[in-house]
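Q: Here's a chain of 239 amino acids. Please give me its 3D structure as tokens.
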Amino acid sequence: MRGAWTIAAREWASFFRLPVGWVVIALGALISGVVFAAAALRPGEIASMRDYFSATGALLIVICPAVSMRLLSEEARTGTIEPLLTSPVSDAAVCAGKYLGGLLFLLSMIAPSLLYVPLLAALSDRPPDAGPIVAGYLSLVLVGALYLAAGALVSALTSSQTLAFLGAFLLLLVMLAGPDILIPRWAGAAEVLRRLSIPTRLGDFARGVIDLSHVAYFIALSAWFVTLAYLALASRRWR
């Protein structure tokens, strides 16, 4: 496990050694500020960040593939994947470390938005309820972790960052829209498809409801994608 955290720390730091990392952070902060001003700072309305969390969650569909596209595909493109796989660290630790490094970078992007909470409270006659805000941030972390895990899988399958981005983006669209599209066509499996629906589960978080079954769903699905990424990475030894 120590090897995984070492790789995670190196991966997180690598985002800030390149100009693109700072550009992504700056653009994320800019877009986040604009979304907050438009969605939360509405004169005459009850103080709430619900629309902000909804809009930010939608932006993660683009942000997460942009973060995950270089996790493993860049190593394959530059040829550094072979020395990494032959290092005294297991393939599982490599895959987990890369994923955790991307997740730490995503959390670094989300962290500045915590300043919006006291700002909204200071500008409102009545402070916003803490429950929906806690649930909202938890939903961003969970859905971001899931999107990154899916992106890590695609990144492990190709050496092209462009293909890794497009593949992860299309996979997320299928995951989000697939169950809702299939429900009218597969009436017998409607209940199962509803349980698999990501938007349905996020709707409960938006109402301030933290259901442990939803938390377990996102964690389990994220772990499943990371496991598949590990198998894709380990298969390089078999070729």
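Q: Can you summarize the key feature?
A: The chain has a mean pLDDT of 82.
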